[in-house]
């Protein structure tokens, strides 16, 4: 295993996607994040939990079986769309009094018995979706139908079909951008949400998939913003978020994790918490306790044009606040 404390001397890479990728900076950022993440006396990560943790613990306390829990999280992962994950799960906990009467929506066989209209109504009542999130519920019945008819109502049979291999399962779950609907088995699962679901499976030891810590990680706005804020990536003009996530950052993190023996799950969790709990809740002010503060150039707000793109510093304007003023 390589020594993570030894800095790489790799030169920045001019990427065909009109970005400069600085691997040396990526190594530095990950080293700083992991050192603090694995520090039992960390002030920054203390009491910072993953957004789904409390709700999953709530389900476990209900003494549901593994089949129910895995199916529930699969269905819920399809609804994590255009909303902050923490807000969504906080809302479910506030609606916990509705769980007993609505718990059947997580049982594919019962969903089919109750029918599509009643299922949609129950999902709206219990999940209380907001904005575009409502559209995701249109696929709830379809996904339950696939689970029931193709996999005996149990996502674990889908895992077995794909050799209990995390990367094979991930590639079989997600739908490539702009893929035709007929090519999809499960709906509403892109590469990020499919990876997020499998990360939950691994984080809470719900099922033993081979290579779960190595295959990939969900790259979302939080990880992308950190890459931009710290200079891991310098955007030439503009880049679609999918290309930044899955053609640049994911391969980069995979390569470095293999080279230095890092755990992909820990990279994902530490950087996501820095972005969501540090940057998003910092009210635009510099956080001197942040593990990567020494290499951070400023704070990036989420683009408001809804085009799914990130832009160069010349074009980004007020959506980036530099610490230099």
> What kind of oligomer do you see?
single chain
Shape summary: globular
Q: What Rg, in angstroms, do the CA atoms define?
A: 20 Å
Beta strands, count: 7
What is the CATH topology classification name of the largest domain? Answer: Endonuclease III, domain 1
Which structural class matches the secondary elements? mainly alpha
Task: Extract low-pLDDT stretches.
Answer: 1-9
Number of helices: 16
Q: Supply the CATH class of the largest domain.
A: Mainly Alpha
Straight-line N-to-C gap: 41 Å
Order of helices and strands: EEHHHHHHHHHHHHHEEHHEEHE
Strand order in space, largest sheet = 1-2-3
Main sheet makeup = 3 strands, antiparallel
Q: Roughly what fraction of the amino acids lie in strands? A: 5-15%
CATH architecture of the largest domain: Orthogonal Bundle
Mean pLDDT: 87
User: Fraction of residues in helices?
Assistant: 40-55%
Identify the notable features of this structure and list them briefly.
50% helix; Endonuclease Iii, domain 2; globular; three-stranded antiparallel β-sheet; 325 residues
């Amino acid at each position: 295993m390589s020594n993570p404390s030894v800095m790489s001397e790799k030169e920045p890479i001019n990427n065909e996607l009109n970005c400069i990728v600085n691997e040396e900076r990526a190594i530095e950022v990950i080293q700083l994040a992991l050192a603090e993440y694995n520090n039992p006396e960390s002030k920054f990560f203390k009491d910072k939990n993953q957004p789904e943790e409390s709700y999953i613990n709530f389900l476990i306390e209900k003494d549901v079986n593994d089949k129910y829990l895995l199916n529930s999280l699969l269905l819920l992962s399809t609804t994590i769309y255009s909303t902050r994950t923490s807000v969504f799960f906080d809302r479910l906990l506030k609606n916990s009094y509705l769980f007993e009467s609505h718990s059947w929506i997580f049982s594919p066989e019962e969903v089919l018995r109750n029918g599509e209209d009643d299922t949609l109504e129950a999902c709206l009542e219990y999940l209380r979706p907001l904005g575009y999130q409502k559209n995701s519920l249109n696929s709830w019945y379809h996904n339950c139908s696939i689970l029931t008819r193709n996999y005996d109502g149990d996502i674990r049979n889908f895992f077995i079909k794909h050799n209990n291999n995390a990367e094979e399962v991930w590639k079989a779950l997600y739908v490539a951008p702009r893929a035709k609907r007929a090519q999809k088995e499960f709906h509403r699962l892109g590469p990020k949400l499919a990876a997020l679901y499998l990360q939950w499976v691994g984080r809470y030891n719900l099922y033993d998939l081979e290579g779960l810590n190595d295959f990939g990680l969900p790259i979302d706005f939080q990880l992308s913003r950190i890459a931009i804020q710290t200079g891991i990536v310098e955007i030439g003009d503009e880049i679609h978020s999918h290309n930044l996530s899955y053609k640049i950052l994911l391969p980069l993190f995979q390569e470095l994790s293999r080279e230095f023996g890092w755990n992909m799950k820990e990279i994902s969790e530490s950087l996501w918490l820095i972005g969501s709990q540090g940057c998003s809740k910092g009210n635009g002010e510099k956080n001197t306790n942040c593990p990567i503060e020494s290499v951070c150039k400023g704070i990036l707000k989420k683009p408001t044009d809804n085009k799914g793109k990130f832009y160069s510093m010349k074009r980004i304007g007020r959506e980036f606040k530099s610490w230099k003023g």
